[in-house]
Structures are given as structure tokens and as C-alpha cells.
Amino acid sequence: MKVNLSMTQNTLLNMLKISITIGLCLIALGIYLHFFSEKMHQLGATGIIISATCIAIGLIFSLPTKIFLTILLMKREADKKAAHTSGNKTPPPHKGDLESGIESSSKISLHNNQQTKASIHSRQ
After folding, report:
1. Of the candidate ranges 3-12, 14-23, 24-33, 59-68, the one whose mean pLDDT is the lowest
2. What is the largest CA-CA distance in the chain?
3. Nearest to 33 by CA among 48, 17, 16, 15
4. pTM
5. Which residues, in sequence order, are CB contacts of 50 under 8 Å at separation 6+?
């Protein structure tokens, strides 16, 4: 049953990708008609309406499907990550390594500060 669900999701993803492609093509067609077509220029206001309609329909195809596709892909990635972490339990990184790195950097900083103070006092 899970195979059918993933197959349905793959089909849905393909349909959404096709919808995005159609939307982008319509947007590109509308831009071409508006800026580069002499026929639309000759039509006047009707030509502007035709090119604007192409762009509007392209946006209708493109934008909502991008949002839905992003949400669907984020959900799929979260599911994969959850499956990966439940199957492969790795211990968290040791805090001692981080703390020792912080301590050594603070010791170096303290040592440099003491050298600076000593050099200032020797100049006076």
C-alpha cells in the first residue's frame, strides 16, 4: 500500500512540474508578445490584453504549484530524515571536545592580554 502512495506522489510531482513548465512558457510567451511582437503593437489595447492574459494564466499555473511542490518536497525530506534518524541512532557530539576548545582559546586570549599589559608597563 505504501508503494501505491509513493507512486501517486511521484505522479503528482510530475503533474506539478508539467504545470510549472506550462506556466513559465505562458509567461515567456506573454513577455514576447508584449515586447517583441509587431502584431500586438498593431492591435493596440487588444494586444496588451492578449499578452497580459498570457502572463496572468502563466502565473496561475506557476505560482500555486511552486508553493504546493515546495511544501510537498519539504514533507518528503522530513519523512526521509525521520526514517534515517530512527534507523541510525548516533550519539551526540562530546561536549568535552567543545569545552576544551573554548578553554584553550580563552587561555590563549588571557595569555595574549597579559603579554600586552606587560609590554605597556615596560614602556612606561
Report:
1. 3-12
2. 88
3. 48
4. 0.54
5. 33, 40, 43
